[in-house]
Structures are given as structure tokens and as C-alpha cells.
Specification:
single chain; 270 residues; mainly alpha; two-stranded antiparallel ribbon; 2 strands; 54% helix
Length: 270
């Protein structure tokens, strides 16, 4: 049987693990966040655990590496038993969690979260977030051991481990963010419609010809705000700021064209 304790694993690691425990067996809450379809595709239902790396506690502690492909491979290594940090008895659900983690990171890379045309992780349904209430949501023990594997692979002892209590705090923060986004869903949707109407009116009055770049920018910024409104990587405050900015820009375009229309001129420039 695989030995968990090696010369490279210090006593403080064992001390931490002794107080963690592993969720498995009857009644255990699944650590995963989606399901693997028969054809091997990943169906993401519940909120994606890798996005806990977008929470404030992960950012302030410098743990954004949790969304990297390298960390995902470390998660897979621990869950498959090929890591020196793999426990002697590996919870059955860890393999699914690891496979989904790797697939999610590949599908929704954090580096392109704000890029035009990138894939966005959308808000899950209310019934799909209940697992976040569990102490073992997002497999804190697995992520902690994976962070040790990742640090070893990177050859950098200065890399901070992802301690279980940080995973639990990040999971809680993510669930709060999701709840706040849901409460604002109708408000953001209405705001988007109002801004789109202003852009359309400005375009009707000639802004498309007088300021084609401005119209394109307004539409692009509005699309980003809409996507962020239904995404889980940004909070309500950040999303609100995007809407405020695009609303101000759309108003400026519209006012310029309205002034030009009243003066009987085609275009108006400051």
C-alpha cells in the first residue's frame, strides 16, 4: 500500500491533515461540481470550484495559481494516487473532482475571463449551489495536498499552500457572491435594456456615421457588462461599475447626436 508519510513530508503537514478528515462513505457530501457525460464531456451544473480563486481571500493570499493548468495537474496527481502527497486511502469522489477541475480550468481559463469572445462561467441555478453549504465543498483536503504537490513541482518553497480553512472561506464567499448576483439579476437586465436603447437611439440619430468607433465601443462595453452580470468571477460592485461606465458613455454619444439634431447639423464634435 502506498505510504503517505515520506521523508519530504514534514510533521506540520501531518498535524494539519490529522484535523482535516476526508469526506467519503455514506452520507458524505460530493466534493465535485458537475458530472461527466457518457461521451466524456463535462456538464457544469453547480458553481465551478476553481472560481474560488477569484474571491478576495484567495487574491489577498496570492493563491490565484489555483486556476492554472499546472495546479489542475497537481490536483489530478493527488487524486489518482501518483503524488507523494496522496493519502493512503483516497476518497472515491476525488477522481471525479480532479477530472472536473482540470476540464473546467481548460474550458474557462482565468487569463481570458475578460477577453472578447472568451467563455464565461455563468451563475448556477439555486438548486445547484446547495453543496456550497457543506464543510467539505470543493474538497478542501484535496486542494491542500494538491498545493503541496504544485509547490514541489514548481520548485518554489515560497509558494503558499491552499490551506483547508482558506478553501472553506473562499467557498463561502463564492456562495455569497452568487446570491448577491441573483438578487441583482432583474436590475442588471433592466439596466442593460435601458443602455441598449440609448445606444440604438444615438445610432439612429447618426452616431453610427459620426462616431462609428464610439458606437462599437459602447456595444462592446455593454456586452461585457451583460456577461459579467451573469458570471461568477466578479462581484456586484465590479459589475455595477461596468454598467455605470457604459451608461455614461452611451449618454454622451446620445447627447451629442441630440444636440446635432436640434442644430440641424449632421455631426457634432466637442
Amino acid at each position: 500500500m502506498k505510504k503517505f508519510v515520506t521523508l519530504s513530508v514534514s510533521a506540520w503537514v501531518l498535524a494539519i491533515l490529522s484535523g482535516i478528515g476526508f469526506a467519503s462513505g455514506p452520507g458524505a457530501v460530493p466534493a465535485g461540481f458537475g458530472s461527466v457525460l457518457p461521451d466524456g464531456a463535462i456538464q457544469f451544473g453547480a458553481p465551478a470550484c476553481p472560481d474560488i480563486a477569484s474571491t478576495e481571500i484567495f487574491r489577498t493570499k496570492g493563491l490565484e495559481y489555483a486556476t492554472s493548468k499546472e495546479f489542475a495537474e497537481a490536483v489530478v496527481a493527488v487524486a489518482s494516487g501518483s503524488s507523494r502527497y496522496s493519502p493512503e486511502e483516497i476518497p472515491a469522489e476525488w477522481r471525479t473532482t480532479a477530472a472536473e477541475w482540470r476540464a473546467y480550468v481548460k474550458a474557462y481559463p482565468a487569463s481570458s475571463a475578460s477577453a472578447a469572445g472568451s467563455q464565461y462561467a455563468s451563475l448556477p441555478g439555486a438548486d445547484q449551489t446547495m453543496f456550497l453549504e457543506s464543510r467539505e465543498s470543493c474538497a478542501p483536503s484535496l486542494l491542500y495536498l494538491a498545493s503541496l504537490e504544485y509547490r514541489a513541482r514548481m520548485g518554489n518553497e515560497e509558494i503558499r499552500p491552499v490551506f483547508p480553512h482558506v478553501v472553506r472561506a473562499g467557498t463561502h464567499d463564492l456562495s455569497v457572491r452568487i446570491a448577491e448576483k441573483r438578487r441583482m439579476d432583474g436590475i442588471f437586465a433592466k439596466r442593460a435594456e435601458e443602455i441598449a436603447s440609448r445606444i440604438a437611439e444615438a445610432e439612429r440619430l447618426g452616431a453610427g456615421e459620426c462616431a462609428p468607433g464610439g458606437i462599437a465601443r459602447a456595444k462592446m462595453d455593454l456586452e461585457r457588462a451583460r456577461r459579467e452580470a451573469v458570471g461568477i468571477r466578479t462581484g456586484v460592485g465590479e459589475t455595477e461599475a461596468l454598467f455605470v461606465n457604459v451608461a455614461g458613455y452611451a449618454d454622451s454619444l446620445l447627447k451629442h447626436q441630440q444636440f446635432a439634431s436640434r442644430k440641424g447639423i449632421r455631426c457634432f464634435a466637442d
